[in-house]
Fold this protein.
Amino acid sequence: MQGRRIDIIGGGIAGLSLGIYLQKSGFQTTIYEKHSMPGGLCTGWRRGDYTFNGCVHWILGARKGISFHEFWKEIIDIDGVRFCEHLEKTQIELKEADRHGERYFHFINNIDDFESYLLDIAPEDSKMIRRWTDKVRMVMPLLEYLPPVKYSMKLIKLIKILPFMRSWGKMSNKEFAKHFKNSFLRSAIENLYDAEMRMSVIVFAQAYAAKGVALYPIGGSLAFTKCLQDEYIKQKGVLRTNCEVKDIIVENNKATGLRLKNGETTTADFVASAADWHWTVFDALGGRFASEKMLQLRNPSKESVFYSYCRLFIGVAKSMKEWPHFERFNIPTLCLPDGTTLQKLEVEVYNYDTTLAPEGKVTMAVNILTREGDWWIKLRTDDMAKYKETKMSIENAIIDVMTQHYGTEWRDSIEVTDFITPATFERYTANLRGSSQGWSPLTDITKRLPIKPTLPGLNNFIMCGHWLEAGGGIPVALYTARKAADKIKNRLKAD
Ligand SMILES: Cc1cc2nc3c(=O)[nH]c(=O)nc-3n(C[C@H](O)[C@H](O)[C@H](O)COP(=O)(O)OP(=O)(O)OC[C@H]3O[C@@H](n4cnc5c(N)ncnc54)[C@H](O)[C@@H]3O)c2cc1C
């Protein structure tokens, strides 16, 4: 393998992970990244005294007990990363109160504590509550094998999961809520997340949290990406930033290099794209290797692409220690010009990460999910002044409702704000419509359509990254990079 050249498009988590795996196996890789820094969606930036965490709430595999921990160990010193563990995932304000007069629902991570809490607020639902928490308990020990690190007889244990996936995988939280008698709990389940979710996804997220294997990395996305970037450089990988790829050079149905935006061309023994799937298939390769079914994805439906975000970041000269780290509270209905309607505001207070702001100050982030990525991108392209004006008016409306919640003293302590939209995500990472996690898991497009790492008829080429499995996220970026590295090794060994 010594000296075999691999060109990797994109320096997000997938591209960096693939680069490290391949460097460790003796290949010479170059990552071409269009932005001035690597990380892709997993990034952050500074404004004055404040660092804004652009992405991660949790890294799956932060601790031992899940196969992803072993995967991280293969490429970085994951045990050397400092993580923060929360007692509660979130607090959600509901319209009505529980039987103790409390309007906040506590989404507690420890599964025994969560069960006791639910039984206390809704004793009449004890059977359904135990059905739910028992599912989380069933999944917890299986996380070590999902996905498998190596194939062994122990994997037989995974059979248990199949009936659960079949029934709970079809049911959304809104449908699940209907099985409960207590109206506070019913409403809480309906509002567990901003968007509708499959119950299997929720149970898995609970199992991760209950086992303490999905945690927030101190320093946020920027610090976490730096671990991978440093390791890649240490392994003598070449990282070229501000280096946008125009397209992939193909000779005799074989990828042989890249054409860069700056006019340069490269030659390689193998090309890997860790960039957006749609861009790779339709722009970098001009749709030439897309099957009939893939062509249907040239203009995918809004529902098939994972939500993007509008996010308002705020730097406040107050510690905010007394506030929950993550909450969704009721607001008077807020209609955004892209058509998104909000009845709750989701706010993160990074009062647990002192590296993001100096003593006595804190960074905050408001998250608004939207499927209207194209609307924002078009507005920015067509009319920059209107785009800026729209952002400003939304920001003002949000600050107004937040002032009602946090008080005027809070408002007077605001030092910096930064409002970003799907157009920002698209501009910096080229993800279709600014998608935050690739394809949407609700429609599970990968089951129906052939999203595979390779393309029919194209040799010496592979893809990895969050577009390869519906639901995306950093785990998919890492796992698909690991699989791509194995495939490249096997392919080039055979040459
Ligand atoms: C607000 C938010 C919160 C999130 N929270 C979490 C979380 O808590 N946990 C979790 O697991 N996931 C989370 N995610 C999802 C996660 O960030 C992504 O799924 C993951 O980072 C995707 O990594 P990737 O490498 O596959 O793709 P990307 O991050 O999109 O990387 C692709 C890279 O390719 C580059 N590129 C694209 N086109 C070109 C080109 N032509 N030439 C050169 N370079 C190019 C881009 O600039 C980018 O750097 C969150 C996402 C968002 C937006």
